[in-house]
Design goal:
The protein is α/β, with parallel strands linked by helices. It has a single domain (6-180), classed as Flavin prenyltransferase-like (Rossmann fold), CATH 3.40.50.1950. The chain contains 7 helices and 6 strands. It has a 6-stranded parallel sheet, with helices on both faces. The chain starts with 5 loop residues before the first strand and ends in a 13-residue tail after the last helix. The structure holds flavin mononucleotide. Residues 13-16, 42, 44-45, 47-48, 51, 95-98, 130-131 line the site of flavin mononucleotide.
């Protein structure tokens, strides 16, 4: 039976590592099981994308017709309601600020509201924190979101697959994110022992 098409949300927030976000968006858009990728930025997320990747939000949205750029100021957007059909959310990179808002249940931005909705509806939330070192507040917040159902997947790429370029690192990490969303990629390089 053909699996039903999936609708995912990707939030790029104001932390370093927006190249990981680009890789996740690319791979989701290329995945045959994915119908739409709702792409959401925080203001600082947009700035990090420009500074680190030389890209705008519109450049990223132009990669595929599946990608729908969402105005983050619209708190009444479809993704802010549990009644809207969607299948999970990735925050990549996720800032310590976004983590804190989600951990505290403060839904005052569309990013934190959309994550809150996914958690309450028991949909997958993959939270790719980028901060170092971590203080006690970060650590406690990570435990809170973990206990609320999120997958905590800090931006810690593996090196055992022999990456030659930074894109290799981004891609390998993105593959692991898709695994968490139940979207394993048939051509992914996997450790065979
Ligand atoms: C260029 C730049 C890089 C930043 N990198 C990080 C980072 O790696 N991790 C982090 O938690 N915050 C980082 N910050 C700070 C956050 O962007 C800031 O706390 C912001 O309020 C987070 O809110 P947001 O999640 O809505 O983007 C950075 C800010 C700038 C301008």
């Amino acid at each position: 039976m053909k699996p039903r098409s999936k609708h995912l949300v990707v939030a790029i927030t104001g932390a370093s590592g927006s190249g990981f976000g680009v890789a996740v968006v690319r791979r989701l858009a290329a995945n045959l099981e994915v119908e739409t990728v709702t792409l959401l930025f925080s203001a600082t997320g947009r700035r990090c994308l420009a500074e680190e990747c030389g890209l705008t939000d519109k450049d990223l949205a132009a990669l595929s017709p599946k990608i729908k750029l969402q105005n983050e100021k619209d708190l009444g957007a479809a993704i802010s309601s549990g009644s809207h059909r969607q299948d999970g959310m990735v925050l990549v990179p996720c800032s310590a600020g976004a983590l804190g808002r989600i951990a505290a249940g403060v839904s005052d931005t569309l990013v934190s509201r959309a994550a809150d909705v996914c958690l309450k509806e028991r949909r997958p939330v993959v939270l790719c924190l980028r901060e170092t070192p971590l203080n006690r507040i970060h650590l406690e917040n990570l435990l809170r979101v973990h206990d609320a159902g999120a997958v905590v997947m800090p931006l810690m790429p593996g090196f055992y697959h022999g990456p030659k370029t930074i894109e290799d690192l981004f891609d390998a990490f993105a593959t692991r994110v898709l695994d968490q969303l139940g979207l394993p990629e048939p051509d992914a390089r996997r450790w065979k022992g």
